[in-house]
Design a protein that fits this description.
This protein is an alpha/beta fold. It has helices at about 25-40, 60-70, 85-90, 90-100, 110-124; strands spanning about 5-10, 10-15, 45, 75-80, 105-110. A five-stranded mixed β-sheet has the order 1-2-3-4-5, sandwiched between helices. α1 packs parallel to α2 (about 60-70). The longest helix has 13 residues, at about 25-40. The termini are far apart.
């Protein structure tokens, strides 16, 4: 299935397909941002399964590198899916997810409907 673009609450969002290319490193993040910008998106919705295990191990710094890349380009990122196993295994990740969800740049949400609701609240 191909990535899709949708307009939600006046914001263009790229939805990465669950079987789409994974984001394994900074280069993959840059490629995804470039594709999103080319297609006019301001947010990327990325299934958690498109991220490697290292993303959820904060000591690897992969999450920080990817998130910083999105912030530098002023592109929102929503990681969608069940990350309970990762959060339960790491107090640091739990704190990172909680703090991220308080902001307007990076969200960890259970599903796309939660993203749609959250984005509508941000724009409304």
């Amino acid at each position: 299935m191909a990535d899709t673009i949708e307009e939600l609450a006046g914001t263009f969002v790229l939805f990465r397909s669950g079987d789409g290319a994974p984001v394994r490193d900074e280069r993959d993040a840059t490629d995804l941002i470039g594709e999103s910008m080319f297609r006019g998106a301001q947010w990327v919705v990325l299934p958690a399964e498109c991220l490697p295990e290292d993303f959820f191990r904060l000591r690897t710094r992969l999450a920080g590198t990817v998130v910083q890349k999105f912030a530098n380009y002023r592109m929102g990122l929503a990681v969608i899916g069940d990350i309970t196993q990762h959060v339960e295994a790491s107090d640091s990740l739990r704190d990172f997810v909680r703090e991220s969800n308080r902001g307007t740049q990076l969200w960890f949400l259970s599903d796309t409907e939660a993203f749609r609701t959250r984005l509508a609240g941000l724009r409304g």
